[in-house]
Write a structure and sequence with these properties.
Length: about 220
């Protein structure tokens, strides 16, 4: 009886852990991110910030590439990044997950508008796609911000600093194994000018209260 109860508790713990599975990436190197080997192009550099090390990109040719899609297989997800946009080109693709052999992908993009920026989140899967961009929701350049894309199996949402920017109902199928680019789109266009501090990918839809927090020291 006691043994059976122990097995049930262990199974519940394992299920809880699986439901909360997260992959946390600290950008403190240009050769390894989150335990994954990274390949640098251009001259991205590790910088010191009040919140620790980050990787800075020049908006011209700097990028990192990893042979992993951290949200492969996720039916629901939360994708977060703490980053500092520094201006530059009007259209920038700064974080990209690409499924191998298909057009299915997830992107964080930004639009620089009148000295500020707006978040553009995009997801394309085998069953549907959606871009979320509100050009009236503008934020400061040269400061650290938190961005999140969340999918609960029915609705796709994006946030900046915990504030909802857009939402839409869409059917997004889980994506397969693939690759990642940071600092540019996977095909090396629309480079990002700024820095990235942290990213976290979780296979469930988190409420804003559970998002990563921008360090107060930033």
């Amino acid at each position: 009886m006691r043994r059976a109860a122990g097995i049930l508790i262990a199974a519940a713990v394992l299920l809880w852990c699986a439901e909360r599975k997260s992959d946390v990436w600290k950008f403190d190197s240009i050769t390894q991110i989150g335990g994954h080997a990274a390949t640098a192009e251009g001259h991205p550099r590790v910088i010191s910030t009040a919140a620790g090390k980050a990787v800075e990109f020049d908006g011209v040719k700097d990028a990192l590439f990893l042979d992993v899609h951290p949200l492969a297989g996720a039916e629901t997800f939360t994708w977060e990044v703490i980053f500092r946009p520094d201006g530059g080109a009007e259209e920038q693709r700064f974080f990209h997950f690409q499924e191998n052999g298909t057009d299915s992908r997830m992107l964080f993009e930004l639009r620089v508008i009148e000295g500020k920026w707006a978040l553009d989140s995009f997801d394309m899967s085998s069953t549907g796609s959606k871009a979320l961009l509100d050009r009236t929701e503008l934020h400061s350049l040269g400061a650290w911000h938190h961005a999140a894309a969340v999918y609960d199996g029915r609705e796709y949402r994006n946030y900046v600093d915990g504030v909802l920017q857009g939402a839409a109902e869409v059917r997004l199928a889980p994506q397969g194994t693939g690759r990642t680019s940071v600092g540019t789109r996977i095909n090396r266009v629309n480079y990002f000018k700024g820095a990235v501090l942290w990213a976290r990918m979780t296979n469930r839809a988190l409420p804003p209260g559970e998002f990563l927090k921008v360090p107060r020291s930033c």
